Amino acid sequence: MLLEGNTLLNRNYEDKKILCPMGMECKKIHACPNDYILYRKNFELLKSCPRCALSRYKLKQKDDNTIEEIEKHGPPMKVMWYLPIIPMMKCLFANPNDAKNLSWHEDERKCDDMYRHPADSIQWKKFDDEFPEFGKEPRNIRLGLSTNGMNSLVNMSTNHISWPVLLVIYNLPHGLCMK
Ligand SMILES: [Zn+2]
């Protein structure tokens, strides 16, 4: 599936061993099967969706043909995997070198008419004009998100898929942008 030289880890545990020390732990949040709500905040303790009334947990058929919810330890109908980025940002700011690099675009970047860094782009300047409060703080982080081959489960017979998601920090100097 992947191009030569790229590998995918076999087990979830291996992923976690790589991601957790980088402050990139993964959170699983139960979701409504119709995507109306996430079971968090005010909805955290609910057992069914307040909008479409579907159960949070999978159902099982009882011997007398009635349906019973598998509540206590039953599997949820749908789970969203959430990768919080704030812990990753905290790790970056906790390291003096990384923290310095995050405002490099303001402090050390060579400014002329050449295009060398995203901060030289029209889009960067346009964003600053539109959101001046954000733009005047060089430590504010500008992110680019891209993915490829993303596919919902609707047309697939498998119940598990993987796809690459790239999160790029545009603040960083040349060659350090990719994380
Ligand atoms: Zn619902």
Provide a descriptive summary of the structure in words.
23% of the residues lie in helices and 15% in strands. With 179 residues, it is α+β, with helices and mostly antiparallel strands. It has a domain at 95-179. A two-stranded antiparallel sheet has the order 1-4. A two-stranded antiparallel ribbon has the order 2-3. Strand 2 (59-61) and strand 3 form a beta hairpin. It is elongated and about 80 Å long. The structure holds zinc ion. The site of zinc ion has 8 residues, from loops.
* Order of the strands making up the biggest sheet: 1-4
Unreliable residue stretches = none
Percent in helix: 10-25%
**Radius of gyration of CA atoms, rounded to a whole number:** 22 Å
Mean pLDDT: 83
How many separate helices?
A: 6
Largest sheet: 2 strands, antiparallel
Order of helices and strands: HEEEEHHHHHEE
Distance between the termini: 22 Å
Q: Rough shape?
A: elongated
Ligands bound to this protein structure: zinc ion
Instruction: Give the beta-strand count.
Output: 6
> How much of the sequence is in beta strands?
5-15%
Structural class: alpha+beta
Topology:
Elements: H1 12-19, E1 27-31, E2 59-61, E3 67-69, E4 78-82, H2 86-94, H3 96-102, H4 104-107, H5 122-130, H6 132-135, E5 143-147, E6 165-169
Antiparallel strand pairs: 1-4, 2-3, 5-6
The protein binds zinc ion.
